[in-house]
Amino acid sequence: MSAETPDFDMPYHDGEIEVQMRLGVHERSAMLGRRMIRSHLIDQHRDFYADLSFLILSSIDDQQRPWASAISGAPEFQSTPDDKTLSIAATPIQGDPLADNLKTGADVGVLGMLPEVRRRNRMTGQVGEVRPYGFDINVLQSFGNCPQYIQARTVESTGFNPIPPETESYNRFDTAAIEQITNADALFIASAYRDSDTVTQGADASHRGGKPGFVNVLDDRRFVFPDFRGNNAYNTIGNIVKNPKTGFLFIDFQTGDMLTMTGEAQIIWDGPEVEAFEGA
Length: 280
Known about the structure:
Blueprint: H1 14-22, H2 26-36, H3 43-50, E1 54-60, E2 66-72, E3 78-82, E4 85-88, H4 98-101, E5 107-114, E6 119-131, E7 134-145, H5 175-183, E8 186-193, E9 202-209, E10 216-217, E11 223-224, H6 235-242, E12 245-251, E13 258-264, H7 272-275
Antiparallel strand pairs: 1-2, 1-5, 3-4, 4-7, 5-6, 6-7, 8-9, 8-12, 10-11, 12-13
Helix pairs in contact: 1-6
């Protein structure tokens, strides 16, 4: 396949197209999507994933709830045996729902980030072979993502930790959770939509960033944050329009503490909440 030949005639599903049409960007989004979204990993992206110290994954549990997870391993714990496969030599940490969601054929979203150089790439795929110490992801769609709102930082993996992490579960935010959300300069979103076998549907992992405080906690079960214009694909919002079930992950990059949750999201299209953030 030549570089000029698009992998997809239309790389978006109907939810993404609905949002693009609403915001008046569909024609431009379709043109860029045909050029940027591929059904395989280009060499540049294969090298990129091999350099990562951590990976963000979205997965779906037995109740069809998306979860956002982080996974890390020894240096070069990710490899690409071919341009359709991402092979991961690591396992989820104890207590992470990802461990139960890794089933062959299951939808999974992938977000790779190199914060120190503000680069990120994304892909949607499905779980391939699952091994005792790792698993494969088969590529459905792969694309680069703009560097906007990525906070520059160095993230290093410590590799295998023989001490199981402490985990706690709640059905609402306690004081520590509220503090972690309020102080966050980044969050990770897991969303999903599938009502057919088309490769344009599946699970998605995405990132939002801003200055600490850009996420506003409303009460012990709700928070709100702005969505700024990016690549005009609207993958996350397109999924939420069709399926409001959504997962979120907050990482404290100083302590390593992670807060993951699943619930439902609502898009606020206009009004004072949007006007409060310039450019939202």
